[in-house]
Amino acid sequence: MGELMIECPRCGDPATEAYYGPCTSCRTELRATLGGDATDMAAVEYEPKMNVTPNAVALKDD
Ligand SMILES: [Zn+2]
Q: How many Å lie between the centroid of ligand 1 and the Cα of residue 42?
């Protein structure tokens, strides 16, 4: 399924992840402590280009 056996760079535990990076529990922990804001900001930055069109604004007003 395209998963990698890795050693978590954060806690050093072996983990199976789709890509190299912190293991699932570390990601959960990071998200709880500092990741949430960064994710939200990225989503907000992304959205205008995708979704904000004159039509979307008009629909909201309707
Ligand atoms: Zn970890």
A: 23
Give 3-21 pLDDT, tens digit per residue. 899 999 999 999 999 989 9
Boundaries of every domain in the chain: 4-61
* CA 18 and chain centroid, separation: 14
- DSSP string over 23-38: -HHHHHHHIIIIIHHH
**Global pTM exceeds 0.70:** no
- Rounded Cα distance, 29 and 45, in Å: 24
47 Cα: distance to centroid of ligand 1 (angstroms): 31
CA of 40 to the centre of ligand 1 (A): 23
